[in-house]
Design a protein that fits this description.
Largest sheet: 6 strands, antiparallel
Keywords: Aminopeptidase, Hydrolase, Metal-binding, Metalloprotease, Protease, Zinc
Number of helices: 3
Number of domains: 2
Pfam family, one: Peptidase_M18
Protein name: Aspartyl aminopeptidase
Family: Belongs to the peptidase M18 family.
CATH superfamily of the largest domain: Aminopeptidase i, Domain 2
CATH class of the largest domain: Mainly Beta
Strand content: 25-35%
CATH architecture of the largest domain: Roll
CATH topology of the largest domain: Aminopeptidase i, Domain 2
Radius of gyration: 24 Å
InterPro entries: Peptidase_M18 (IPR001948), Peptidase_M18_dom2 (IPR023358)
Order of helices and strands: EEEEEEEHHEEEH
Length: 233
């Protein structure tokens, strides 16, 4: 169980202060699908991304969705002969991955389809042949030879994936030292229903509790300011 806690310390003497504490429960560790430290998978002519589940999720709902990646990236910066490392937040807006399912007539078992998170939850990133062609064309256009082993992370992650991240961060793929990324649905949350009475979104229990708690905490700032003015110093 994860908890989000927040508190407010007033300006009046401690003995006269009013406590303002809020806590929200974030159940099931905010289930998601995270990229593995070594995510490079090539199988059946496709470039796939190795992922691992986090928390207790309904993993069958991740199939056939338009997925992208988001999270934190550690980028190397060189300036005046010195090297520093910074954390950058990143999100690729376009849908770049998908976890496909087989047609129903390929799975006629009496027990139905059972998700194997190690072998079934492998997002497809691209075809291997098309990726080879793009890499070759880029090398010819630049007049240089492209060695996929030149990147320190090319043995752990697909070069195409690193290039997508580098484009978002305005850096070179070689500058990406490490990252903590997760797959996420590109379909946004929205208000729906015939009378616009429903919220269509994932992880509503976590998000609603956190939002309402922080909203209530922020609304009490005006009250605290008023009370501090009424309490003698």
């Amino acid at each position: 169980m994860d908890l989000a806690n927040a508190g407010e310390v007033g300006k009046a003497p401690v003995a006269n202060q009013v406590a303002d504490v809020v806590s929200a429960k974030s159940s099931n560790l905010c289930p998601c699908v995270k990229l593995k430290p070594v995510s490079k998978v090539t199988k059946g002519g496709y470039l796939e991304v190795g992922v691992q589940t986090y928390g207790g999720g309904l993993w069958h709902t991740w199939f056939d969705r338009d997925l992208t990646i988001a999270g934190r990236v550690i980028v190397k910066k060189e300036k005046s002969g010195s090297v520093s490392y910074i954390h950058r937040l990143v999100r690729v807006e376009d849908p770049i991955m998908r976890i496909p399912t087989l047609a129903i007539h390929f799975d006629r078992g009496t027990d139905g389809f059972k998700v194997n998170t190690q072998s079934h939850l492998l997002p497809v990133l691209a075809t291997r042949e098309l990726n080879k062609a793009v890499t070759k064309n880029d090398a010819q256009n630049d007049g240089e030879k492209t060695d996929p082993k030149s990147s320190p992370n090319s043995s752990k992650h697909h070069t195409l994936l690193l290039q997508l991240l580098a484009d978002q961060l305005n850096c070179e793929p070689d500058d990406i030292c490490d990252f903590e990324l997760q797959a996420c649905d590109t379909q946004p949350s929205l208000v729906g229903g015939a009378q616009k009475e429903f919220i269509f979104s994932g992880r509503l229990d976590n998000l609603c509790m956190s939002f309402c708690s922080l909203k209530a905490r922020n609304m009490t700032e005006a009250l605290l300011t008023y009370l501090e003015g009424q309490v003698p110093a």
